[in-house]
Design brief:
Blueprint lengths: L1 H28 L10 H130 L3 H6 L1 H37 L11 E4 L3 E4 L19 E4 L6
Length: 267
C-alpha cells in the first residue's frame, strides 16, 4: 500500500511535468504570435489530459487523508487504552500500599494493646497480693491489740493487789509506838499478806504460763506451734499442717470460713 501511494504521485507528477515541458517547447518554437498556428482541438485535449491528472491527484489525496485519519484513530485508541491500563495499575498499587499500611498499623496497635493487657494483669495480681497482705496485717494488728488489752488488764489487777498490800503495810506511827504487840501482830499480818500475795502471784503466774504454753501448741496434733487464726471465731489454735484438714474450730466448734497465718515472731 505504501509503495503504491509513493509511486502514483510520481507518475502523475511526471505526466504533469511532461505536459508542462511540451507546452514550454512549443512556446519556445513559436517566437512570434501566429494565429493560424493555433489548433483548438489540441488545447481541448491538453485540458482533458490535465483534468484527468488532477482527478487522480484528488483521489490519491482523499485516500491518503482517510488512511491518516484511520491511523490517527488507532493511535488515539492505543493512547486511551494505555492510559487506562496505567491508571488501573496505579490505583491497584495505591490500594496495595494502603492495605500494607493498614496492616502494619493494626499489627503495631495489637502489640501495644497486648503489652498493656499484660501490664494490667500484672498490676491486678500485685494489687491482689497487697490486699491479702493488708488483710493479714489487719488481723495481726487486732490480735496484738487484744493481747495488749489482756496484758493491761493483768497489770491493773497486779497493781490493785500491790496497792492493797501497801495500804495494809502503811499504819499510823503512833499506834505502832503505843502497842508493840499490836505492831508485831500487824507485822506478822503484813508478812502473811506478803507471803500470801506472793504465793498467789506466783501461782497465778505459773498458771498463766502453763495456760500460755498449752495454748501455743496446735489443738489438733499437739506437735507444732499454733500459728493460724481461724475466722470468724478468731481462735489461734491450729498449725499450718492441720488447717487444711479442719472445717470447724477445735475450741468452739464453729464452722471455719477462712484462715489467716499469723507471724508469731512478732510476739
Amino acid at each position: 500500500m505504501t509503495d503504491s501511494i509513493q509511486t502514483l504521485p510520481l507518475k502523475s507528477i511526471n505526466g504533469f511535468a511532461s505536459g508542462l515541458s511540451i507546452s514550454r517547447k512549443r512556446s519556445r518554437d513559436s517566437s512570434s504570435f501566429n494565429p493560424s498556428l493555433i489548433s483548438i482541438p489540441n488545447v481541448s485535449l491538453n485540458y482533458q489530459h490535465q483534468n484527468g491528472q488532477f482527478g487522480e491527484l484528488t483521489l490519491l489525496n482523499d485516500d491518503i487523508s482517510s488512511q491518516m485519519y484511520q491511523q490517527q484513530l488507532e493511535i488515539d485508541r492505543f493512547v486511551v487504552h494505555h492510559t487506562e491500563n496505567v491508571r488501573t495499575e496505579i490505583e491497584e498499587m495505591r490500594r496495595q500500599n494502603a492495605r500494607r499500611l493498614i496492616a502494619a498499623v493494626h499489627e503495631g496497635i495489637t502489640k501495644r494493646l497486648k503489652t498493656k493487657e499484660e501490664e494490667i494483669i500484672k498490676i491486678g495480681q500485685m494489687n491482689w497480693s497487697l490486699e491479702e497482705k493488708v488483710k493479714s496485717l489487719i488481723v495481726e494488728n487486732q490480735i496484738l491489740k487484744e493481747l495488749c488489752e489482756t496484758n493491761e488488764a493483768t497489770a491493773n489487777a497486779l497493781r490493785n493487789k500491790l496497792q492493797q498490800v501497801l495500804a495494809q503495810i502503811q499504819l499510823p506511827h503512833h499506834e505502832f509506838a503505843d502497842n508493840s504487840a499490836k505492831a508485831k501482830a500487824t507485822s506478822a499480818l503484813v508478812d502473811d499478806a506478803e507471803s500470801f500475795c506472793g504465793s498467789n502471784y506466783e501461782e497465778d503466774h505459773e498458771r498463766d504460763r502453763e495456760r500460755k504454753v498449752s495454748d501455743r501448741w496446735c489443738r489438733s496434733c499437739g506437735k507444732e506451734e499454733s500459728c493460724v487464726l481461724l475466722l470468724p471465731c478468731r481462735h489461734l489454735c491450729v498449725c499450718t499442717s492441720c488447717v487444711s484438714s479442719l472445717n470447724i474450730c477445735p475450741i468452739c466448734n464453729s464452722v471455719k470460713s477462712a484462715a489467716v497465718v499469723v507471724n508469731m515472731n512478732l510476739f
